[in-house]
Amino acid sequence: MDITFGGNKVTLEGKEIKVGDMAPEFKAVKRDLSDFNSEDLKGKIVVYSVAPSIDTSVCAIQATTFNEEAAKLSDDVKIVTVTVDLPFAQERFCSVKGIESADIVSDYRYREFGEKYGFMIKELKLLARGVVIVDRDGKVAYVEYVPEVTHEVNFEKALEEVKKLS
What we know:
CATH architecture: 3-Layer(aba) Sandwich
Number of helices: 4
CATH topology: Glutaredoxin
Oligomer: single chain
Strand content: 25-35%
């Protein structure tokens, strides 16, 4: 799979995740510095919104759009934005942008999400942009790796897939 960042080809580390795969369990860090464990979301439909940094305009749009959509979805759908930003930056961002319906977690400490889901950009140690949707049984139902990291995800397609599972 060819992924570019600002027009320059980058290498993704880890195993490319595909529809039908069992979603690997991973640890990340919550905004309060406690551990996030993906296994705690078993039985829910989970949308992992993956972005390099919330401090860029495209990433901010992605996080705020999914936060707005999360408020409209059923309680059995959980939206989790994953970046490598420090939890302090994530907390500041969420406070300023009013992020309350979706979670934001950091892959900075363990880097398990990036490696287990194949989103870690080797050259930058940032995550590529994309979306992974996991069904209630822990199986990957939808995956999007955005070919150019500076472009937006396909919100309509991702939300359509969530609604099919709800």
